[in-house]
Specification:
alpha+beta; Hypothetical protein af1432; Beta Polymerase, domain 2; Ubiquitin-like (UB roll); 6 domains; six-stranded mixed β-sheet; four-stranded mixed β-sheet; 24 helices; 21 strands
Length: about 650
Amino acid sequence: MDHKSIVAAILHDVIEDTDMARDTIAEQFGEEVAALVDGVSKLTHIEFESKAEAQAENFRKMLLAMVQDIRVIMVKLADRLHNMRTLDVMRPDKRRRIAKETLEIYAPIANRLGMHNLRLELEDLGFRASNPLRYQVLEDAMKRVRGNRSEIVSKIEGAIQTRLEQEGLPGRVVGREKHLYSIYRKMRTKHLSFNEVMDVFAFRIIVDKVDTCYRALGAVHGLFTPVPGRFKDYIAIPKVNGYQSLHTVLFSPYSVPIEVQIRTEDMEKVADAGIAAHWQYKSKENSSNTSTHTRVRQWLSSLLEIQQNAGNSIEFLENVKIDLFPDEVYVFTPTGEIREMPRGATAVDFAYAVHTDVGNHCVAVKIDRRLMPLRTELLNGQTVEIITAKGTRPNPAWLDFVVTAKARSTIRHFLKNLKRDESIALGQRLLEKSLATYNLSAGDIDPEQIKSLLKDFGLKKLPDLLEEIGMGNRIPALVARNLVQEHFGSLPEAEHKMNHPLMIKGTEGAVVTLAKCCRPIPGDPILGFVTAGRGIVVHTQGCKNTAEFRKLPEKWIDVQWDEEAEGDFPVDLRVLVNNQRGVLATVAAAISEMNANIENVNMETRDGIHSSLSFTVAVHGRKHLALIIRRIRRIDVVERITRLHK
């Protein structure tokens, strides 16, 4: 690494753990070192609602600094490795939390950067801290197996080395051992026993050049029989982190399969150290063109796009986690270009990988020249052609099957903006319609008066207010009334009798709903509450359900009945009567006499003497109801009558 990286590594905790400011570091060591140190420093001066949010925001800050300068993450990984090596001094709960974070985030990042050796150590240390008992059991089992295997390993190693020499191929053969976390993960995901995982002997052949790799492959295939379908060429098609090698599995004479990796010395360095193998910091004078650096830069630019589309830091962290665990599938564009996609990726994921606009406008897909559904999972070697159309937009149902972070975050971002845009447009139309009753438009209102109203409502911008109206959280007629009041200083009586409280049967055009819990009727003292999607909901003042709303005074609205309110209003009555034949018909006839319609009736026998009759009666108002109650009370068999409030 360059000297600035070393200086930044030495100073990495200075901003976080001392009172040293970033500017002081910039003064003494230069702006570049200050930016690196600041990139790995946590946000300690901001209050977060939860620990998860704080961790996610710190992670976002670090990744954005890493996009500007990849050395930030390299210093952070070195710091994390040192922390993991000294984790034993921590409390068990803290050890497990740090280990989990390492396995979920930092080890996959090291893998994405191709830093194989660092990843292996982070994984094994994380495994030991998070599952100490399982680690110990596997470590003991490995020690027992190692002794039994050493003789077979040396024999196979010797046989491969001899064959290479016979073919005149320069190279060295190394028997390699699986590391513990990889064994544990394989046992868990594939439900295998320890013996089944350890059945495979692994060897690495390291040669001088690419041409020799393929010749060495021919030599080992001549020595041992290859297992069909188990050959992978990562030299022609490198992995997403730049890793290159030939992989093949062979049948050995010892009744166990052999896994062989063949690569050049250069590929070996990249496989072990990744982006740190050929450190060339990208600058104006010196730009790195190696495969690993190019792929890392592509990944970083995709991270930037995910960050721009994420709603918050926790959503960003979740999206990056999805992006950090790719098990690659290789597919082709119609022009023959290779695209790497994570396993399980669909045609929609592929469309977004090509370009955001292609994803947003895709309508169909051809896989190997056949039309297929957009949710089709992609397989190795397929040719994928996306069909787009203008005017189309992302479908919310896509979120059920997309797997890449870019597709998920872009669809969410688009739908969020679409919902907001539609709400604002609707709010604008509703407000203009309400203002038109005063012969005004939004353009006639002074911007300062709009600002004043926004401040009263606790909103920042006019679009926020329009969105509230469009979503049904605010009544357009009431907003218009407030704006008119701001504009004229008072409400014009000629236009509206606004010096009275809002009438239910008025001309404001607001949606009014009568609550079913208390069934208010003209003449009842009432309260109005602004409710999203239902306009103004009117309750009687004594209704039990208003207790919750009374804590939200900004949602109250002063309402009263229009003097000319007409119509039939349902009201619930309960009548307790002596249990006699024909009693229901007698009460029903009395209600009909008073010109009231019975909408519903129910009869229950309470005991052998009394029955309870429940009626839903349509009345014109409170006076009409009083007359009905008085008439029913005059019936001899009636003991008691009450108006019901649910």
